[in-house]
Amino acid sequence: MRRRTALLSLLLLLSGACREGDGPADPTTPDARIFLTSDPNGARIGIDNRNTGLVTPDTIGLRRGERLIELVLDSAGFIYDYAVILGVAPTDSVGSLMLPLGLQCHQPIGACMAAAHRQYETAGLRFAYSGVGSLFYTQGSGEGITWPGSGNDSYASSGMPVLAGLANGREVALGLYDHSMLVGRPAPRLTRTGSTFRLVSVSWILPPNDLAVSANTVRGIQLEQEVIADDAVTGVLIVRLRFRNVSDDLLVHAFAPHIQRSTVTYTDTWIGFALDPDIGAATDDRVSYDVDRSMVFAYDSDFAESQFSSAAATAPGLVGLRVLEAPPGTGVLLNAWPLPGDWFAGSQSEIFGHGMLTGSNIYIPEHAHAQIGHLPPAGDDTRFSVTAGPLTLEPGDEAEIIVAIAVAPPTPGTFVSGTAMAPGDPLDTARALYEVAADLRARMAAAEGLLP
Question: Which of 41, 134, 156, 432 is the most buried (most CB within 10 A)?
Fold first, then answer.
């Protein structure tokens, strides 16, 4: 979505000259010149809704008054841009200005995200990726992960890197549907070598408007994300997430001038990934845990999904999320919550997300094991997360977590389609569900072979 931001203070970048009177300007003679660059370069330059035919880096001439500068870069099938209104005064010197390019979907984000996403097929799965950096999201109602990849059976509606902690002492948390907080940076890199798939992208986590900032939400974080898969390891994706505190980066503040230029220190911080597993219909999923594999997973409560095709209608798959590697010295938390428990950045509900992602305030009933959070009492539209912490992220600090996402069929002969199965105690390896999830557990073990 095109940004239109008033930044009259950028006049200072042009010169230190005094402004002349407001008499008529010569339309053919520029009153100021700017050497304009972008990060990255190669963007088309527009002035006052007119295409100049120039691309960055180049010197542009501007007439006095307020001028709209627009930069647009088409890269990897996505459009990255930036727009700013400059107050221009006459000057004899040439100023310089660098502007960052990004892709951010503001509210309402549905149409923007639908236009900005792509589908990729690998390892027997098809998944959605958006230019802002989101995974497993199209419009929030399925089609985020399809298994098998050649079919139409949907297993997820959204995926989101999450972070919770204390930002300069205040509780903050990203939510599972906070896609408007992501700013995709040019440009994702996709490589396929033999059977191996890699998709690498960089995003900034920045509030899209003043309202989100007023809640002192998560901001000034750079997210490096790498999705890795191999056709030889069916039904498995791994996602490497590196969170870096860039709250002191001037380019970040140039892109989001509504954020104060003060830096942020994150303490008691937990990082990870959240997933909305919708196995066909969203309201009849159940959740359980496998502590030995640092995994939370979902299954259809009675193993019957009428909207699924062929054999999957009576044997829908299971969806799991696992921590493969956590930052040194941290603990791992596995958690789940129902749809009404969702939270959103920039709102008072962030405090609930902070409790869920850090383990400081988990919904009842809660399991006694330190790694296990909420135990949803019935089938529902349930979401889950894996996080690691606590950490401290001062400006320049970074931390990395690697997670695996897998879809697998239930073990034949261990269930009856149409008959509900309770999760049982997550620590009980003799429970019925443990055998049902045998293939999922095996695929999660195979995910270790994909680690970079």
Answer: 134
